[in-house]
Amino acid sequence: MTADRQRKTPRTAHQIARPPLLKIYGLQIAVVLLASVTALPLDMVAAYSIAIGGMISVIPNAYFARQVFRFTGAAYARQVAQGFYRGESGKFITTLGLFASAFVFVKPLQVFVLFLAYLIVMLLNAVLLATLKRGI
């Protein structure tokens, strides 16, 4: 008789709670769109630079999170590790591609505003993860 058959209760794996990804990235997109629409009457180039910079931050991070949290639990340790590698490499390549595309195809572009929006959304990602993890 094996150990699994002797056990009265089913075997459960410890799992790390999955963060509310849709809520996090939905809030980020909403903030980016709100900032872009708010800047629209002042400067159209700045408005779409904000939108592009913000989305350059959101899209690769969402891809990374999707890859990392596809599998959970000790039984899927290999798949979780592969998800980290796949997610990080995909995030890096996507970020480079989106920045390159913005610089090549979008004219005129306010580069400072684009990078500022990118950095602010990166910080917003960290704040939302910390805040939502605590349940606030």
TrEMBL record:
The chain crosses the membrane at residues 21-40, 46-69, 90-106, 112-132. Keywords: Cell membrane, Membrane, Transmembrane, Transmembrane helix. Coiled coil: none annotated. It is found in: Cell membrane. It is a multi-pass membrane protein. InterPro entries: ATP_synth_I. One of its GO terms (cellular component) is plasma membrane. This is ATP synthase protein I. It comes from Zhongshania antarctica.
